[in-house]
Amino acid sequence: MSEFGTQSLQAKLIRYTIKERVGAGGMATVYRAWDNNLERDVAIKVLHEHLSYDGTFQERFQREAKFVAGFHHPHIVQIFDFAMIETDDIPIYYMVMPFLTGKTLADVIESYQVKSESFPLDSAVRMVEEIATALDYAHARGMVHRDVKPANILYDEYDRAILTDFGIARLAESNNLTAEGMTIGTPAYMPPEQAQGLEVDHRSDIYSLGVIAYELMTGKTPYGDGSVSVMLQHINAEIPQISEYLEMPNESLDIVFHRVLAKLPDNRYQTATEFVEDLSKAVRGDTISNPPQPTRTFDVIEPEIEPKSSPPVDKPKRREKASSNSPLGLVAMGLGLLAFVLIVALLMQPPPTQEIINADPEPTDEEISSSMTGDLFFESDFSNSDDYGSFWDTTDLQFLTREVTDNQYVITNNRAGTATTSLFDPAYEYEDAFITMNAHLVDSNSAASGYGIVFRYVDSENYNVFAVDGRGRYSIWVRENAEWRELRNIETTWTSNEAVNPDSESNILSIDINGDMLTGYVNGIQIVQVEDDTLEKGAVGVYLATTPQGMAKVAVDTFSVAESIPITSAMTDDSDEFSESMTDDG
Prior knowledge:
alpha+beta, Phosphorylase Kinase, domain 1, Transferase(Phosphotransferase), domain 1, Jelly Rolls, 13 helices, 25% strand, disordered C terminus
């Protein structure tokens, strides 16, 4: 921004007095300013003008800024204020945050390099641990940083590491008018999936933190600081042995960095805390064993511009087009046509997958042999006097909590872009049954989060789901051999229906299983009827899915399994007439 522009900005900022321009990056310019109301120094981050050319930017900016402003963590910079002003007829978006007097981690690393000194090992581990807690906090709330690097880590007056720029990279990434020569992410710290233009998730941030830890311990990043060549090495090169750059070999450290820098997200640490715990052990000289490969079945929830909570599909989509400013465009310009062809061939390797949480214990042979096969009809209201409350799974996973509390069965899925099932005792299997659930979303970060009834659950790869979401839509699925299929055979997998209450309003879902005929009701109104003979019988439970944008929480007030309603001609009548007859019959 020019000096004239700075003066124009100052004229609009009545509450703040700009003192000086302290820095600029690819997406924003930062000013030191004085808050005239609270009488304190603040930093004002002004986003570059080109980002606001997209007509949807204002809405996205407000959403992202408000979301991050709700973060309260000692190692994440606090957002005090955010707004849009117009100067010279140009919309200017800014955020106000504390002015941190310390240097960036990038500055500190450079100062040690200039002196040819090593970064103190204890300081390195402490810094990585502090940023790890910040990342896990944000990831649990559905936020992925996308640009974790030393320049985005500042030290405060107490020498604590503070992570900045949450939400900024995602704003720029979703903008079609990125600046000339600008790419989202920093090549030296960029995970392979980001270098390929694929979707990123929380494990991408963990990879970047691993690169930072590697740099702190060795004085260099694993693949150098270039652009095109570095991105290719992130994708294809062998992970360098960190022991080669240390005074003494440390096999445990090699194992830790081979895992945190794994090419496929599934093979990395799944939380930043897990990484730091193993890093600390390895630094102490403890033995770290090679981890086993993931044993759960994983699928991908396909991200859309309009996010949905539908069950997963096979593979993530590549971004529709790689512009001349994208990583692929840079490769093409830098290496020529032949290199471009080779690179494309490399990038067409199978992409990493995103997890679907398999949260339920598989029934043992003994349990299956003693199955009641539908004889146990019940109703759970999750009260203290509920005879069946203890039949529900209340085990917790790292990103999943389940508890019976306040007369509700509450399930929280904190991992973005995943789906999970929570079962009533899997020893009880049902062929024909009438299942009803009264539930609602609680504090969901995305209206597209879905919840519903799981039935005919055989194992994590084979079951049915009848679900609704916070946008007033419904869907009915079968999962067969880990493949999802919408049973209505239509292009739109989620369909709006007036019977479905949106947002956090309660919905009463019912599914009548009568032979191959499945009839679904929402709030007493029949909305779907399909045939499916894929599965014969199985357990029942609750389904909860998050979108790639955030977590989801569902509260189940009641859940019941009764005998199936016999099929009559009324089942095929107009849904309104049928629902009326259902009401009259009580």
